Amino acid sequence: MQIKQLLRRTPNKKQIGRIKFVLFVLCLVPFMRLIWLGINDGLSANPIEFVERSTGFWALFILLLTLSLSPIRLLFGYVWPLQFRRMLGLMMFFYASLHITIYLWLDYGFDWNDILKDIIKHPYVLVGALAYLLTVPLALTSNQYMVQKLRERWKQLHLTVYLIAILGVVHFWWLVKKDIREPLFYAVVLGLLLGVRLFYKLRQIKSKSEKIRKMKLSLSV
Amino acid sequence: MIIQQKTDILPSEITPKEVFENRRHFIKQAGFGLLATTALAQTNLLFAADATRSNAPIGKTSKSLLSLPNFTKTAYGKDEKLTSYEDVTTYNNFYEFGTGKGEPATNAKLFKPHPWTISIEGEVKKNKTISIEDIVKLAPLEERIYRMRCVEGWSMVIPWVGFPLAQLIKWAEPNTNAKYIEFVSLADTQQMPGVNLPILDWPYTEGLRMDEAMNPLTLMAVGLYGEKLPNQNGAPMRLVVPWKYGFKGAKSIVKIRFTEKMPITTWMKAGPKEYGFYANVNPQVEHPRWTQSSEKRIGAGLFAGRIKTQMFNGYTEQVGQMYAGLDLRKYF
Questions:
Q1: Which residue ranges make up each domain of chain A?
Q2: What is the complex's ipTM, to 2 decimals?
Q3: Best of B94, B99, B247 to mutate (most A CBs within 10 Å, chain A)
Q4: Where are the domains of chain B?
Q5: Smallest Cβ distance to B291: which of A45, A114, A175?
Q6: Residues of A in Cβ contact (< 8 Å) with B54
Q7: For A136-186, how does the pLDDT look when each residue is reduced to its tens digit (9 = 90+)?
Q8: Are A75 and A193 in contact (CB under 8 A)?
Q9: Domain B16-322, CATH 3.90.420.10 — does that match?
Q10: Are the beta carbons of A46 and B200 separated by less than 8 Å?
């Protein structure tokens, strides 16, 4: 009974702040772990690949987490978790930026000739680069000022997050040599997250058209 | 009911499991001695991971315990900087034991490479089998330090112990129809967890053209770092073809078949556009996934960057003439 009540409760502003802080710290754990492993020689025999993989994984993971907040609202009616979207989105941008920096600096030593070749010739790199470029405007417009300034256009712009997520999963899928179990899992998760949205959207359209039909019917009578 | 039997071993005399399992590591550390204190190691590691990793895994005494016959050192790669024993034996592509790089080292622990027989089939005078013990007697064993370039864009330098494949071929007595040689690895669902997954078309098969197989560089390895080949590296016997991408080196070989037609290898089946029969290291021929013009040297550390990949992995002098006139873009 108590749990039920607890679940039904909406946290107040102070509590939201606390939850946000905990989430923030949790999101930084993978980063701290990498630093700790780096100091303690724990980054495997291929440390560059290890940090590339790790940051890429967490960027994708946090992105999927961000995208799960709306389905939570649609399915269970919790509206308050939507307040964490911005922070999670920026965390995803943080890991994606680390990922790109490691690639450009540690992996390719800013050898732009090789980097350009790598991007053009390897589809998974191209898709990943594209995904990252698309996240930049989202991060830049994530502040309150831009939200108010852009209004409707802000909403449209931030719809690209769906494209970014799809590109991210494709990036991972195409990188894997043969054992596609892991990217397949993320593809399924993403499919579900987008599927829930689509389902509710379609239902909304249907009920709207139903209303219009009824209205017309009543008018004609 | 449990009947307790008295033993004459005191519990205090039994080596704790952890110590027992880590004995190699322990010997390594001991051999490494006072050179690096832990504190020093930790500050250095970030910049040069290999500086604190020992290159000498075992003392002289352990060699006889591991029963690798005597071998002679050679001049091959004597100036190369070796990849540490730890990295060579914990960073492996051996899908029969799992697709993660660390999985073979963990999952192959209980693998039994003894007793082991290899069957010789196909275009030969007579089909026959030979045990691993007899194989190592076919030719004197030698240590050769080879570079190994993986198709995934990383490389190592490994001191293999083995003998030229040509010696085994001579013993196998192929007939005049034999134009190619196919190597088949063990696919044992009991011992190899990866074989239960349909990730590749098991058993793993690889192949070489006869002249490639007869090339003096082509090695049948039975050991590395002066000891018997560790399970995760393809025990008891594996192929080493240093001018080709690493996946050509079939591990835990159970069958060698001489054929008239070019064998279709496992990776050719898995991705015909990505993996060709030849798979020669070639910085000019692009792979759809990985950059082939440069590579990451394992153990060089987080800040070492990439090194340029050499044509035929730097073995052009020894193998280049075999491919004269062959379009290496078409026959990748």
A1: 2-207
A2: 0.84
A3: B99
A4: 16-322
A5: A114
A6: none
A7: 999 999 999 998 998 899 999 999 999 999 999 999 999 998 899 999 999
A8: no
A9: yes
A10: no
